[in-house]
Write the structure tokens for this entry.
Amino acid sequence: MTQTNVQTRSRSFFRKYTTGDIIFNVINYGMLALITFACVFPFLNSLANAFSSNHAIQTGAVTIFPVDWQWDAMKTVLGDEQVIRSLLVTVFITVVGTLLNLLFTVITAYPLSRRDLKGRTFFMNYMIITMLFGGGLIPFFLLVKALGLLDSIWSLIIPGLISSFNVIIMKTFLQNIPDELREAAVVDGCGNIRYLIRILLPLSGASLATIGLFYAVGHWNSYFNAVLFINDPDYYPLQVKLRNILLLAQMDTSLETLQQQNDLQIIAESLKAATVVFATLPILIVYPFLQKYFVKGAMLGSIKG
Amino acid sequence: MDKAEVHVKLGPFRKEIKKNYDLYLLLVPGFLFFLIFSYIPMGGLIIAFKDYNIFKGIFASDWVGLDHFKEMLDIPAFWQMIRNTLTLNVLSLVIGFPAPIILALMLNEVRAKYFKKISQSLLYLPHFMSWIVLGGIVYNLLSPENGVVNEIMRQIGLPEIYFMVDKVWWIVAYTFSGVWAAAGWGTIIYLAAMTAIDPHLYEAAVIDGAGRFRKIWNITLPGIMSTIVVLLILNIGHMVSIGIEQPLALTNPVVTDVSEVISTYIYSVGIKQGEFGLTTAVGMVQSVINLILVLGANYTAKRLGNEGIW
């Protein structure tokens, strides 16, 4: 973060800590540590549950470490053909969807980043209006239906092909690349498209990674569109499958109030946790690598251009 | 692309097209995309004024005027979901809005680089999870039988609470799970605003004998005030719109009295029960109020001397 600048400067200034500072620091660090822990604890708990026996979970012995270590739940999840199928669906929409998202976002953002393009304001307004007002769910649903996309994987990719928000992030980034670069390229006989491919794109790695991550996380987590558009269980993405497994949990809770809980419901605590972990793991794996990009991207997104 | 241009001065426009024809070609897919997936659904709003018949299609269906809107005002569920939408949104705003500000102020006081980095990374994490995962985790944590929260309460001798089936506790769980999911990510923008504060101000304050709290109160907070105002106004602008994923992930049959919001109503009555006309009318009311709120919010932001949202 750009924070470091301020930090180093002020650090040299505060070389001497007063008692007040020390108390402040202890409380501040302590509370932050606590809040951070509260943020991660639920994930650690699920992870621990996924590898604990149902009995241990039932007795409330599991917190952040697995009790009675066992792989059974994970094996059941991995052995479930439908889970694997829905994983493949999700991987497909994430990979293909994100690549198409990036392609169409860049080709929309690039002309809009050119201050010399006539009609640019018109197009920007045309796009921004869609962020402010929409037809709502029903007309959108009927449109996708009319296009014949129901029960097709493409219904999860095409209706979300371009996000105005990400176009604006990309456009702002491209605008910040000095125009002299293009002038020099034009003198050397470089056309618009070639300039985009050969010069701009290689310079845009960080912002492509950022908006790529935003799109990819969106696809990976996409749930509601799939519920709307997909009825065929063969094409359920992972989140829908996950939801179906977790729905059991909800039934449990409502039954418990009615005092109708019986042993049949106890089956699957670790199974539910294992499914959550299974659906989360890929994000956790790429997360540390992409972190440094998305902070920059989020800030870029907050500054409109 | 710019139609006014075509009629007024054909010459320069043609020249422009010729010079940058490739740029205009690049805009064609985007133009078509927004036309099809944003503008056509806006046109689809006429369903709100029609007795939509699947076999006749949108245009051939009979006009019914404002019947759907009248019907909407007459159903008790309408007022209930308006009340729920406002309750959940206002609570999320009151609790959820200050949370990232306080968190950012705390993070900004941290000098240990690694502590700060690790803490931030972990705070951002819930933002990247789907509400299905978060909902599953919330149910798991709060389960009366084997949830950790109730286990702790038993340990310290408190009675167990059926969080997700008690209407009041459900609202509490909804609000706080929203804070949990969003607060960390929300700090980014405030931390960015804090880096723009002139460090000399802090040095001057120290010379004047200011302690840590004084500096936060008199320098940091005023320094991010314009950001706070813009974000607050933006949030108020979104008061009637509520995403569907959080309510859908957390709801259950026992608490629908408090959990049914506009978006879930449109989904369950519109899509599932096929009441297209009525729910399009509901959606249209939502869109219009939203538009008014956002435009009003932007106007207010500009009046207050802030930059506005666009």
